[in-house]
Each structure stands twice: as C-alpha cells, then as structure tokens.
Amino acid sequence: MQSIRQCVKHLALYGRSAINRTNILSNATNLAPACSFHISAICKGKLSNYEAPTGFLDYNKTIFPPQKPGEERRPAYVCHMKANIKYSPKKMWYIAGFVRGMSVDEAVKQLSFLHKKGAIIAKEVILEAQRLAVEEHNVEFKSNLWVAESFATKGIVIKGLRRHAFGRKGTIHYRYCHYFVRLEEGPPPKHYYLPYPKTGEDLLNDWLKEAHQRKVPNSL
C-alpha cells in the first residue's frame, strides 16, 4: 500500500502529461504487486514486449548487381525508423509529409523551428539516418542527401480506464506510432509532387465553359 501511495504522489508532482505518466508507471511495476484502478492498463506491460516492424530496415541489406558501362550511376540510399513513439499517428502524418522531398539540411532547419513534439522526433531520426549513410553506406558528403520517403504508421494502442462521476468508468487510449524515413543521395527534385497541368485561370475558364453548356431539362 505504501508503494502505491508513493507512485501516486510522484505522479501528481510530475505533471499531467501522458508520456510522463507512462514513464513513471512503467517503472512502478516492480514496486507494487497489484496496480490500482487508475493505472492498471499501463502497469500490465512494457513497450519492449511489443514487436516493432523491422521489414523496412531490410532494404538496407539489398545487394544490387554490378552496373554496366555507361549506365547511369545508381544513387545510394539509407532507410531508418523509430518504433513505438508516444505520439498520435495522425499528428505525425502531417510532419512526415512536411519534410518529404526536402534536402537533409533544409528538413533539419525547418523542423528546428516547428514547435511540436513530432518535429523533434523526426529531426532526430533524420540526423541518425544521415550519420548511418556516411558511416555505413559510403556516402561521401553528408549534405548531399534528400528525404525520398517519410511516413508514419499506427503503433500499439494501450487501453486504460478513467474514473467518471457516479461510479461510472470510461476508456482512455494511449496511442503510439512508428516513423520511417529514407534518405537518397543527390540533389532533391524540383517538383517532388507533380505540378498540376492547369493554372487557376485555366480551371476557371473550364468551369465557365461547363456552366454555359448546361441544359435545363423541360425548358424552352
């Protein structure tokens, strides 16, 4: 009972953040044999017990055949990821799409001015991938890389209980996500996303043309 009171006291002092609660309560499993009603869902397991996706990192082990004389040089690339991030996958999706198609230096610079938790995580993963490209994949210049792929997927979801008034209870979800990035050697393309073939004025003229050609049924 004393250990449970200690855990709740530290929890109240530490703050209301979900990630702080997860860190404290995951360490509290060794103190208390049985968890209380409020923290039972988090105390049941650790993140290390959940398997992380490793198929994306297998692309680093791909062996390509020798290139023929005169063939265009195949650019080097490196794949990197971070699994089980305590962050919403929907929020991480916007940050992942934000840096897609940028050079490494530009992506790191833009993420440094983005005041979001996911931006800090994406910046760390990109810098780690940049270091791996130089040390393990024979990339000569670390700035000669661009973000070819950047996406986030859904991770584990831990369900917990939240006490409501009049003896009722509710479900609370602690969501995690995985972040993947692939850096490719060379300068970034001018248009990562294909530009729309028509301008705004062309679209307006097409709309006016369709509006003039409309036929009102049962009219003169």
Task: Give a short overview.
It holds the Pfam family Ribosomal_L22. This protein is an alpha+beta fold and about 220 residues long.
| CATH superfamily grouping of the domain at 75-188 | Ribosomal protein L22/L17
Named CATH architecture of the domain at 75-188: Alpha-Beta Complex
Percentage beta strand: 15-25%
Note the total helix count.
Answer: 7
- Alpha carbon gap, first and last residue: 87 Å
The profile of the biggest β sheet is:
3 strands, antiparallel
Tally the beta strands: 3
Enter the CATH topology name of the domain at 75-188: Ribosomal Protein L22, Chain A
Question: What's the Cα radius of gyration?
Answer: 25 Å
CATH class of the domain at 75-188: Alpha Beta
Q: Helix content range of the residues, please? A: 25-40%
Average pLDDT figure: 82
Q: What pattern of helices and strands is seen along the backbone? A: HHHEHHHEEH
Q: What general outline do the C-alpha atoms trace? A: flat
Question: Unreliable segments (pLDDT under 50, ≥5 consecutive)?
Answer: 14-22, 28-35
Structural class: alpha+beta
Please list the strands of the largest sheet in the order they lie side by side: 1-3-2
